Amino acid sequence: MAKNNTSVRPFGMRDKLGYAMGDMGCGFSFQLLSTYMQLFYCQTIGIKPEHYAAIILISKFWDAINDVLIGNMVDTKRISKKSKFMPWILLGGVLLVGLTIMVFAPVNSFLSSYSAKVAWCLISYCLWSVAYTMVNVPYGSLLSVITNDMSQRTSLSTFRSIGAALPAVVIMMILPKIVYHKEELPNGDIQETLIGQNLFIVSIVLSLAALIVLWGTTKLVTERVKTVDSGNTTGAKAFFGAFKSFFTNRPMVGATIATVASVALFNSTMSLNNMVFQYFFKDTDHMAIAMIGSYLPMIVVMATIGKITKKFGKKKAVAYSMLISAIAGLAMLFIPLQPTSTGMIIYVVELMFLNVGNSVFQIGVWAIVADCIEISFRKTGKSEEGTLYALYSFFRKLSQGIGQAASSLGLAAIGFVEGEGAIQPENFGSDVKTLYFILLFVGSLIAFLSMTFVYNITHEQEIEFGNTKPEFASDEDIIQE
Fold first, then answer.
1. The 3-state secondary structure of the chain, one letter per residue
2. Any idea where the domains of the chain sit in the sequence?
3. What is the pTM of this model?
4. pLDDT for 427-460, tens place per residue?
5. How many percent of the chain have pLDDT more than 70?
6. What is the CATH number of domain 10-217+231-467?
7. Which of 84, 153, 214, 308 sits at 20 to 30 Å (Cα–Cα) from 138?
8. What are the tens digits of pLDDT across the range 103-130?
């Protein structure tokens, strides 16, 4: 017999830290691939950029099936009586270790055929996507069942962003000193070369770290909101039904369009930032200062996001901040920049202005998605957290592919030469900088338009969600207590 619901541990710092650790675990693997996989495949393995674009797009079409099926499995097939989400997170975390290592395996040492290398890259990334989905879909769905209090969801979203930022800091500040080698060319120029073997070792260390912190999430977070399922289905009916629920949810569509723009043209173009330092400034030792431009705005936003959204609502907070980024991005295309120390400082300041909107969106988006799921539940009465989040996750991951494919095709257009130690065209550094700025501007503009004209959850509705008393799970439904 269940005990009184009041014995369930109240929401607190333990939940926030545990939830942050979840995205930290995802981030150790995801950030490594986002920042270095394109560089590793093209510069170390020698994959042509147009073929890399094909690899990414094919793997994301695979995700169309993978994400929805896994999301529906999370909703309908419990692999533990104690928790809906935690066992999936641990199972996926174990698989993520081996498949992250597989992505950065030194294939040049055992594969000589170019076709075999392309096949290895495609298969390893597709398998990695399955493992990542098994972690990320249940982890993302957790927010909806930890609490339905608006301010508490915003705080969880903020802590998730902190968890995501920590792996990025490690990867951006420490890894360049480990994975790049500086050498002088016969003509006297300095060449920065990526060391693939070092990346392989790094992938082992970071994937193990990911598993440890994911385990921490399962020990610290409590699932306390109990939803009533009115009859979720499986199979083809569930697959197509999920698409109907998703695309008839206008705020979810608006948030997803903004996410595609933000993730594709901001987060998934980090390798271009590396190339700006590698080929324009020719100084990867100072690549870490780009973290200032990327994360100083995020730190400021983290400290103020609760007050901002409480006063203006998530819709206005994100839309207006993205407008600031779009204006800054347009200005960046016309500000002259030289490959000097002064130019590097100007570059970082420009990134700071551009990252204002992206920071607000990346911190607030998880609370926004939780609100979209809440709208769906109130409309249909179905508990589809895993399925809806899986579809959102699919488009988020598809946007990663779009961004990497766009940057790869852009690199091919400006004359990138693949292969380890390859010499790039004379104006390549300047061209890659311009390409990066264009993608950032377009991403900001699309996100602003979507959050302004498509997303339609009002501040008043957000307040209503927060004032609705949640149905708490009994002790029999809680894994930790």
1. CCCCHHHCCCCCHHHHHHHHHHHHHHHHHHHHHHHHHHHHHHHHHCCCHHHHHHHHHHHHHHHHHHHHHHHHHHHHCCCCCCCCCHHHHHHHHHHHHHHHHHHCCCHHHCCCCHHHHHHHHHHHHHHHHHHHHHHHHHHHHHHHHHCCCHHHHHHHHHHHHHHHHHHHHHHHHCHHHHHEEEEECCCCCEEEEECHHHHHHHHHHHHHHHHHHHHHHHHHCCCCECCCCCCCCCHHHHHHHHHHHHHCCHHHHHHHHHHHHHHHHCHHHHHHHHHHHHHHCCCHHHHHHHHHHHHHHHHHHHHHHHHHHHHHCHHHHHHHHHHHHHHHHHHHCCCCCCCCHHHHHHHHHHHHHHHHHHHHHHHHHHHHHHHHHHHHHHHHCCCCHHHHHHHHHHHHHHHHHHHHHHHHHHHHHCCCCCCCCCCCCCCHHHHHHHHHHHHHHHHHHHHHHHHHHCCCCCHHHHHHHHHCCCCECCHHHCCCC
2. 10-217+231-467
3. 0.66
4. 899 999 999 999 999 999 999 999 999 998 888 8
5. 88
6. 1.20.1250.20
7. 308
8. 999 999 888 899 999 999 999 999 998 9
